[in-house]
Amino acid sequence: MIVLRSLSLLIFGLWLGCGSAQADKRVALVIGNSAYKNAPRLANPVNDAGLVGSMFRNAGFDTVEIRLDLNASEMRRSLREFAARTRDADMAVIYYAGHGIELDGSNYLVPTDAMLETDGDVLDETIALDRALYAVEPAKQLRLVILDACRDNPFAKTMKRTLASRAIGGGLAKVEPTSPNTMIAFAAKAGSTASDGDSRNSPFAVALTDHLPKPGLDLRKAFGFVRDDVLKKTGNKQEPYVYGSLGGSDVPLVPLRPVAAGPQANPQDSVRKDYELALQAGLREAWEAFLQTYPYGFYANLARVQLKKIAAEEDRTVATEKARLAEQEKARLATERAQKAEQEKAAAAAKAAEEARIAAEKAKQIEQAKAEAAERDRKAAEAAAAKSLAEKRALEKAATEAATKQAAEKKAADAESRKVAALAPPPSAPPPGDLAKSVQSELRRVGCLSVAADGDWNAATQRSLTLFNKYAGTQLDAKLASVDALDALKAKPGRVCPLVCNFGFKADGDQCAKITCRAGYHVGDDNECEKVPEKKPVVTREDSKRRDQDRKEAESAAPKSQSSGQMICNNAGCRPVAKGCHLGPVPNANASAKITGEVCN
Length: 601
Known about the structure:
This protein has about 600 residues and is of the alpha/beta class. Helices cover about 45% and strands about 15% of the residues. The chain contains 16 helices and 18 strands. The strands form 6 sheets. Strands 2-1-3-7-9-10 form a 6-stranded mixed beta sheet, with helices on both faces. A hairpin with a 2-residue loop joins β11 (about 505-510) and β12. α3 (about 70-85) runs parallel beside α5 (about 130-135) and α6 (about 205-210) packs antiparallel against α7. The longest helix has about 70 residues, at about 340-410. It is flat, with a radius of gyration of 40 Å. It starts with a helix and ends with a strand. Residues about 1-20 and about 420-430 have low confidence and may be disordered.
């Protein structure tokens, strides 16, 4: 039954995806290096490559190539062949898990056969990150390189330095892509190292598969969710970081699927039935088959929890067997009276195996508790959904009965009464104001509405319901409050809309905390603390042409007449000498006497 349903879903998905596949070709190259010949083996890269490669395949990528444990020549050949496939692709993605190294500010990927006896060997025995960027460059819409390679440098202690000034840092160095629509995602911020974690897969790889394949989710938001998950799982010790930028439009890794027209059966019923069948089987193969058919959604997340529980049980079984064999070896050496050094070595091995067994047992108990809690949450969510559905049907039934009763009463009334009579709302339906307030309260609970629930269905409330539609994948009518909207909101157990903070604030759990910078720093355009630039004095030069013109005008202007400040007195009294005049001798009838008077030009 599951096989037939899976086949029908596959055929339907291929039919829906024909148009988009022709217009949007997506290719991916996945590399995982674990078996290093000259360095300790890494446990997770091969597992992470398989997990991420399956994610790309389930997401409908046209070509997904998974390559494991590659030496230098194999890595170069894989990148060269992938570059040829990206020439006609719209989206090209490279995922690399393994060792990486930073030398003089440049990043390099380490093949499995690298020896790196000196710092100069890095240029010959590793693959430059620029080579991977060159391979994705022909893609038309998106070029994405994901590096789960920010681990400790295993050659740091033995590598000889040819130049004392040559820098070899921990983790990878910051990069700035030069091509547009190019993103480089690090498992840990530049200059820091990443953790493989205690489980089968690294926290970074698990977060990638949880968020990147969500249909319609912009990559910038998806990597933001990845960052939050990894910080939470590592106790804020590891922070993934993305370098590069995209344009203003949303760029999802997986586009939204078209919605089929016409009435559709509830798909959650079939998903729930298949989930319960896999739960009854309790086998890894059953859960992997379920995830291949249903890679996303509520039940897919529950299935991944069950897979983690099975992996923990497998690890516990292996650790128990190793502890048993180590104890037997210890007893055998003691019985055969072997050398003391051999007995001590066997005792140490037995102790280490026992500690590993205890750790595996604790991990198994933790995953068992998580699985049980997830099952309780599932049953509670299904019960709440069933209750909401029953209430909705009861409301619809009451509304139908009330409408029938009203119609009968209306038919018995006279013609004038029939014209003005209106159907009363069902007695069991909540008043419109209470319904709007209830929907607003639920919108606040799932993080889509920030204002208080006042029962006023205004523009802000409509925008919040539209936001809920976007992240919950629903198509509720945002223009009015409805019982369907209330049921859909109640079915969500936690936050749906991501926390968006204003400039100068950053997300801290479910709240926005103000970013505080130390003295001499301020919040820059990227919402990070950066140093305040020093203000340089501005040197201005006088306009010589304007200065010469003003001087010429001043010289050519006629001199202004000014008062001399002298006074002249006669029989009528005293007055100031007129402008342009001065006191001096004036002609007189008596030439022998000198008379002082007002002389004017």
